[in-house]
Design goal:
Blueprint (H helix, E strand, L loop, with lengths): L1 H16 L3 E8 L2 E6 L5 H21 L3 H4 E6 L2 E8 L2 H12 L6 E8 L4 H19 L9 E6 L2 E8 L2 H12 L6 E8 L8
Parallel strand pairs: 4-5, 7-8
Antiparallel strand pairs: 1-2, 3-4, 6-7
Length: 197
């Protein structure tokens, strides 16, 4: 019931605020899952959210630390893994757990073999929030079409780009943000199907 009220409230506020979020859908651990208004069918958004929640639950069941040390992003059945773990065995456990979900078609593993740093995670979160704000207010960029994750100074960009000009603007915003060391582009173009990637 709370979920329905949250969604309805945001639908009413959306035209006035001009925000890109429909609202909070639910919480998984310490993560807040939101629905974005992007150019994909709503059913695909919902499928990604459902897969994301199921994967987080499965990872936490394996090891509660996975819920803190591992960031996962789901976009059109493709799962991006970020974070740091101290052993290759733990990384393999995460990857195998993600692959075991029936909806997952591809896993992009960027988990580093390292000791997780709470301080670095906080720094990355602050910088990525700044980038999202800048993207939202930059003309010619449909920010809701992008999913952005930052880990250890590297920005990982997933989503849909309209054309080369838009992508160049997005990359420019990210590169010109203090604290960004590298960018990994994992987007697709608007007219490109997921099977082409």
């Amino acid at each position: 019931m709370k979920t329905i009220l949250t969604l309805l409230t945001c639908f009413l506020i959306l035209p006035l605020a001009g925000c890109q979020f429909i609202g909070t859908l639910y919480n998984v651990g310490d993560r807040t899952i939101t629905i974005l208004l992007d150019d994909r069918p709503f059913s695909q958004d919902m499928k990604d959210l459902k897969t994301n929640a199921a994967l987080r639950k499965a990872l936490i069941a394996k090891d509660s630390k996975f819920g803190i040390d591992i960031e996962l992003t789901v976009f059109e059945n493709v799962v991006l893994l970020n974070g740091a773990l101290p052993t290759t065995e733990l990384i393999e456990t995460v990857v195998q757990t993600v692959w075991s979900h029936e909806s997952v078609e591809k896993v992009i593993n960027y988990i580093r073999l390292d000791t997780p740093s709470t301080y670095q995670a906080g720094e990355d979160a602050a910088i990525s929030a700044k980038i999202r704000t800048q993207l939202s207010f930059t003309r010619g960029i449909k920010a809701s079409n992008y999913k952005l994750t930052m880990e250890n100074g590297t920005v990982y960009l997933m989503g849909i780009t309209q054309n080369d000009a838009e992508l160049n603007k997005v990359v420019s915003v990210i590169k010109n943000t203090a604290g960004v060391q590298d960018i990994v582009i994992l987007t697709r173009f608007q007219d490109q199907t997921t099977s082409d990637r």
